[in-house]
Design a protein that fits this description.
Elements (H helix, E strand, L loop, with lengths): L12 E13 L10 H4 L2 H8 L6 E2 L7 H9 L2 H7 L4 H4 L7 H11 L3 E5 L7 E9 L9 E21 L3 E10 L5 H11 L13 E4 L2 E2 L6 H4 L6 E4 L28 H7 L3 E3 L8 E5 L6 E7 L1 H8 L39 H8 L10 H11 E2 L8 E5 L2 E6 L7 H41 L6 H23 L9 H13 L2 H40 L1 H10 L3 E3 L8 E3 L1 H6 L6 H6 L2 H26 L5 H5 L2 H19 L5 H28 L1
Parallel strand pairs: 5-7, 10-11, 12-15
Antiparallel strand pairs: 1-6, 1-11, 1-12, 2-3, 3-5, 4-5, 4-9, 5-6, 7-8, 13-14, 14-15, 16-17
Length: 680
């Protein structure tokens, strides 16, 4: 236990494991919503978590010095993406009820919702692992390992939900007991693994603590980097033994990518892993790989003194590391003009510490090792004994031991730098999520599956929603600069560069523009089809209009007990208010209903049939055009029948309606046959 002179525990190192994941909402059947806005409905997600004992809405307040320092460090628009609040939101009246807080927050539509888990404060994060026994390294026949156990104290657990469809779970740990260099790397590498990276077999016999172990497919990863056991408080432990079932089942693993049980236990029952989603839950999937992003601060005087030293500095043996326990302005002889090559530039441990390699260094080329160390190290404060390392999946800070004079560095690490890294990680995860969504929409567009009628409308709406969320992401979550402070600008640029965010965003922009152009083409074709349909509709009324104009649209009315033939103009019949019995005469007139059937109902039935065939049976417009001539000819026949009827030719009424029914049946058979011919 590391204690100060007052007997208070002081941390040897701090570790933050961050799990980025995709999230989607499920319907009552346990399936992910197909509609893009429904599956990423933040309002519904907050309702799901409202009664979850694991998570409480984190209403950010600037109520202590650390909160003030990190809040003012960032620009105001950046604060809204990090804390869910800007300066203008701090003056609002605080609500005591979580529902009112959430409702007020959701109205602002900021990109992030912050939650905290109070249930595991000061609980133990325990994991066991196998490490090679150096005393038996010369044994060529067998492999001997010893089991190590690490217990770290849980400081806090946060959950950030972003409206781009990603989330980040962060577990903040304190190490008070393990000070050796290899212990720190073991904690980082073994603690971040959430499922096996690979499965394999070892030919040699494996011994742990001198006892022969069963040689199964997990011994390979467990002797490299995978923990033998992960346990958090009272949650179900994880030993990954279920992966052995892959050799025992003929069907194999239905969902090989699984999160460790303690991680799922922290998230709670409302979160389900993809492939095992339940009704109206939050379906998640890890978005990167088997490693959580790792942040680590480590205090070691001897190590930082060596790494900060120059290989060819004058009197380097007389230089002492700047000790923050003494006055900050002590006599530390830098001799800048002689320090040309620093030890950290070619040091394997510094490389392993940055890249979280628990075994041997993964770069076995001295020139490349030096290039990588220089590229990934932030050296502004190296002469003060402070080195930063940034990679695609880690952020490392090495200083002197924890003391009053360097405490501010540790505070910066767990506040400003954590928030900066989390923002960049959310950006990277969002870009990957957008890219996957674009690929899925492009696949649907190319296959053309369901892209007719309602299916086409849903597809276009999903693409529009995707594009809208991307624009919102650019405006509200992605920033070229997050702070006015020089070091903040440099650090943010370094993180962005190491994560390759700018290049990935550029590629994503190209992908989305191509998809947008494709959708624009589809909409243009859809508009053309509508215009063609309107042309067909207009043509259908040409012949009835011609006959109506030619024959004057006269009505023959039967009134009284006898047969009184009266011919009048239609407009006079409809609008002549002098005749008190006009409505009655019209309703009992056979000729009036014949005219309605021929000139109104018949075209309407034809048009309705065409619409139903096109919309519900997904028959394209060009298929309807093939029967255009038949439609016009048959309408001419109907008009001729109508004229005969107007002249009181007996029996023509029956012929007219039989002709209409025959025509509709004939048209449906013709179009359905054409549709099957083109598709099979």
């Amino acid at each position: 236990m590391n204690k100060n002179k007052n007997g208070i525990n002081e941390p040897v190192s701090k570790h933050i494991f961050m799990l980025p994941f995709k999230w989607n909402l499920t319907d009552v059947d346990g399936k992910i919503y197909k509609n893009y806005d429904e599956k990423l409905d933040v309002h519904k997600l907050t309702n799901i978590l409202k009664n979850d004992d694991n998570w409480k809405f984190d209403d950010y307040k600037v109520n202590e010095p650390l909160k003030y320092n990190e809040f003012v460090y960032f620009y105001n628009n950046v604060r809204k993406a990090i804390f869910g609040k800007g300066v203008e939101d701090l003056n609002e009246e605080n609500e005591n009820e979580e529902d009112k807080l959430l409702n007020k927050y959701l109205k602002k539509e900021y990109p992030v919702i912050r939650y905290k888990n109070p249930n595991f404060k000061n609980k133990d994060y325990t994991f066991k692992l196998y490490k090679k026994d150096e005393d038996t390294k010369n044994d060529t026949e067998n492999l001997y390992f010893k089991e190590l156990e690490y217990k770290l104290n849980i400081d806090k657990i946060y959950l950030n939900i972003y409206n781009t469809g990603v989330g980040i779970l962060s577990i903040h740990l304190n190490n008070y007991n393990y000070s050796k260099k290899e212990d720190i790397i073991n904690i980082n590498d073994y603690g971040r693994r959430i499922y096996p990276q690979f499965l394999g077999l070892l030919d040699k016999q494996i011994y742990v603590n001198k006892n022969l172990c069963e040689n199964n497919i997990l011994k390979g990863p467990k002797t490299k980097f995978l923990a033998n056991l992960i346990k958090i408080s009272s949650l179900n432990p994880e030993n990954f033994e279920e992966y052995n079932s892959i050799t025992k089942s003929t069907e194999g693993l239905q969902n090989p990518v699984k999160l460790a049980k303690p991680i799922m236990g922290i998230l709670g029952d409302n979160f389900k892993l993809i492939g095992n989603c339940n009704s109206e839950k939050i379906c998640i999937e890890p978005i990167i790989d088997d490693r959580m992003f790792t942040m680590c601060w480590y205090g070691n005087n001897d190590l930082v003194n060596y790494l900060d030293d120059s290989k060819n500095a004058k009197n380097s043996e007389n230089k002492n590391l700047l000790n923050y326990n003494n006055n900050f302005n002590n006599n530390y002889n830098h001799e800048y003009n002689t320090r040309t090559d620093y030890n950290y530039e070619s040091d394997e441990y510094w490389h392993r510490f940055m890249f979280m390699d628990s075994g041997s260094c993964t770069c076995q080329n001295e020139k490349l090792l030096t290039e990588l160390n220089k590229k990934h190290t932030y050296t502004r404060w190296s002469n003060y004994g402070t080195l930063y390392g940034v990679t695609r999946y880690s952020f490392a800070l090495l200083t002197t031991k924890y003391c009053d004079n360097n405490k501010f560095l540790v505070n910066h690490f767990k506040t400003m730098y954590f928030e900066m890294v989390q923002l960049c990680l959310a950006q990277r995860a969002s870009i990957l999520k957008f890219s996957e969504d674009i690929s899925q929409n492009s696949k649907n567009g190319i296959n053309g599956k369901g892209l007719e009628g309602k299916g086409l409308n849903n597809y276009l709406n999903n693409v529009r929603s995707l594009y809208g969320r991307y624009i919102n992401f650019l405006n509200c979550m992605y920033f070229n600069e997050v702070s006015a402070q020089e070091q903040g600008i440099e650090m943010y640029d370094l993180i962005q560069d190491r994560m390759n965010i700018k290049q990935n965003l550029k590629d994503l922009d190209n992908e989305l523009n191509e998809l947008h152009q494709y959708v624009t083409l589809i909409e243009s074709n859809k508009t053309s089809e509508k215009i063609n349909l309107l042309a067909i509709l207009g043509a259908l009324f040409v012949i009835p209009s011609f006959f109506t104009g030619f024959f004057g649209m006269n009505l023959t009315m039967f009134t009284g007990n006898g047969l009184d033939t009266a011919t009048s103009n239609t407009s006079n019949v409809l609008f002549d208010m002098v005749s008190t019995n006009i409505l009655y005469k019209m309703t009992i007139s056979n000729e009036f209903w014949i005219w309605i059937g021929v000139f109104l109902l018949s075209p309407f039935l034809v048009l309705l049939t065409l619409y139903l065939l096109h919309y519900y049976y997904q028959i394209p417009i060009r298929g309807l055009l093939k029967v255009m001539v038949i439609v016009l000819l048959f309408l001419a026949l109907l008009a001729l029948n109508a004229w005969f009827l107007a002249c009181n030719y007996p029996g023509e009424l029956c012929i007219t309606y039989i002709s209409i029914i025959a025509f509709v049946i004939f048209l449906m058979v013709l179009l359905v046959n054409d549709y099957h011919h083109n598709n099979y």
